[in-house]
Amino acid sequence: MASVIVYLLYKVTRRLLTVPSVLLRRGAAKDAELLVLRHENAVLRGELAGPVRYEVADRFWFAALSGLIPRRHWLKIFPVTPGTLLAWHRRFIAAKWDYTARRGTSRPPTPATVKTLVLRLARENSTWGHRRIQGELARLGYRIAASTVWEILHAAGIDPAPRRSGPTWREFLTAQAEGIIAADFCHIDTALGRRLYALAFLEHGTRRLHITGVTACPTRDWAVQQARNLTADLGIRIEVLRFLLRDRDGKYGEAFDAVFQAEEMEILKSAPRAPRMNAHCERIIGSIRREALDHVLIMNEAHARHVLASYERHYNEHRPHQARNQLPPGVHEKPAAAPGLSTGKVLRTRILGGLINEYRHAAMTFRAAHDRGGLPGREERVRAGPV
């Protein structure tokens, strides 16, 4: 190790001793030496197959000497471009003021699970800012600074401000479900190719379906009359409804909206060509087609009314709905468990000639008939045969 140090000192000393000799030389000798060195440099560059990779010490030496030579001569003297020399100089200056290596130990990084939880709280609560999220994390036992929450949200492209954005359309419909009734037209093609139109309403909160009428000419006056019929049928239930959701079909008109506005309801119009904004009503129309209309040849308006009325009763009184915990819109409590009943006592009721089947226990069937004023008639007994 000592020999290496002595050798380095010798080389440095020798290099320093050559500086005065160069400075004291006469101009002609120095010029000749420069010409020789330049020629040798040109020959060596020509021998190289690719670019030269200079070490840090070489870069430092070139950058230091560049300050003694006019910039207009750099291209002829130095083996690199002027831009490279300037870049090296900027790096040396930047390294001088870089204290990264001198920093002590900082606070540990935030765990990935905490970051994921921060982003989840921001997505699920659109009105929460970074301080509100920090408070919720503290309640859950996570000790994290508000500034750290701010940085996590900012890095994910989420505005840390208390009010980032309004609720999405899905969030709005979910929050206001109890107060929304949606409307949409359903077209029906008869066996002879005539097109009919039915107007359907769906209560978001209860999933109750209302098919108010069928016509071949859905004028605005006809639509207004259907709106009046609906408000009369709803009775006191209309008091909980606050919004009517519909598309921008020209068959509605201002008079149609006025019927609901008179009941202190606000009209919500979906965007053009955006059926998903009225997804619940679009889905029920799809269910009507798949479960009934696609399997029946509709002959005329009267036939269409009969089919839709039968489906409406089935939909509201018997068909289970996942959104209501598998309960029909007209049922509010789950039926009591019936242990000990054999499968032979489960009866079937055929709707629309067996196109749709409903199943009940025999005791329930006779009780329902008794509530209507007597025992089941012949037709009902035939339809309610054992499975």
Secondary structure elements and pairings:
Layout: H1 2-24, H2 27-47, H3 56-66, H4 74-77, H5 82-96, H6 112-124, H7 130-139, H8 146-155, H9 169-175, E1 180-189, E2 195-203, E3 209-215, H10 220-234, E4 243-246, H11 253-261, E5 266-269, H12 279-291, H13 301-317, E6 346-351, E7 356-361, H14 362-371, H15 378-383
Parallel strand pairs: 1-4, 4-5
Antiparallel strand pairs: 1-2, 2-3, 6-7
Helix pairs in contact: 3-5, 7-8, 10-11
Region (Disordered): 320-340
Pfam families: rve_3 (PF13683)
Domain Integrase catalytic: 163-336
Query: How many domains?
Result: 5
Estimated structural class: alpha/beta
Known CATH architecture of the largest domain? 2-Layer Sandwich
Radius of gyration: 42 Å
| Contiguous uncertain segments of 5+ residues | 374-387
Number of helices: 15
Write the CATH fold name of the largest domain: Nucleotidyltransferase, domain 5
Q: Spatial order of the strands in the main sheet? A: 3-2-1-4-5
Mean pLDDT across all amino acids: 77
N-to-C SSE string, H for helix and E for strand? HHHHHHHHHEEEHEHEHHEEHH
**Ends apart, CA distance between termini:** 100 Å
- In terms of DSSP E residues, the strand content is 5-15%
Could you describe the largest sheet, including whether it forms a barrel? 5 strands, mixed
Give the overall silhouette.
elongated
CATH homologous superfamily title of the largest domain: Ribonuclease H-like superfamily/Ribonuclease H
